[in-house]
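Per reviewer request, we include the raw input and output of the structure prediction for the construct analysed in the revised manuscript.
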Amino acid sequence: MKNPKDVVFICKAISEETNKENDTYCEELENRGFTTKMIPVLDFTYKNLDILKCKLSQPNLYSGIIFTSPRCARAVMNAIENIDHRWQELQTFAVGETTARLVNENLKLNPEGSCAGNGVTLAPIILSSKPSKPLLLPCGNLKMDTLENLLTEAGVKTDAVEVYETVPHPDLETTLSVALSQQMPSYIVYFSPSGIHNTYPLLRRSGVDFEKIKWVSIGPTTAAALQSYNLTVHCSAAKPTPQSLAEAIISSSTQH
């Protein structure tokens, strides 16, 4: 059972739409009796926005556009002031509710696939639309090729544009050190493999007892990254939503 004093470290990027005081994942867990600590692990720098702008000006070349993260949507917003209205007549796809909401509110597009938690579950949704032209795919430097491969195998072309770089957050080491000096986490939650790669050596040097921590992932790709470090995955949220994460932690805790 969950201890009311259980501390959860949330290791994720802080988006431009939120901050560590009002992060929805922290709010959801705290509403369920956990104590949370936000650890910003990643930062992002945008690039190739001129190339992206050029491609966005030619919607006639595409069947639609795919957004796999909020950063992809933010890159489009940074590249253009107003999106060409012709994109509204094409297919739009997004991974997760946060990305879909950002796309809808700021780009006035209506994405499909918000229920999909990753590229694997988004692929069949895309394929069901039977795109006849390539799909524009803004992406980051650490993107997985899973979605592209699934679409390519089914005969659907993508036009990938690398629009942002993922780098360690400049304050990561200090933030993590201070957090560990204040309270030892019962759970550490990761949202991406890069978050694990950036914090693992810092945690090792800190002397934390890895056996006493319950390691939690958002999705199977991040779970696999935890396992690559020989860390036992306590539970994995099926979708990148606060509710899915909270339910995964609580459900797994009652089973252990």
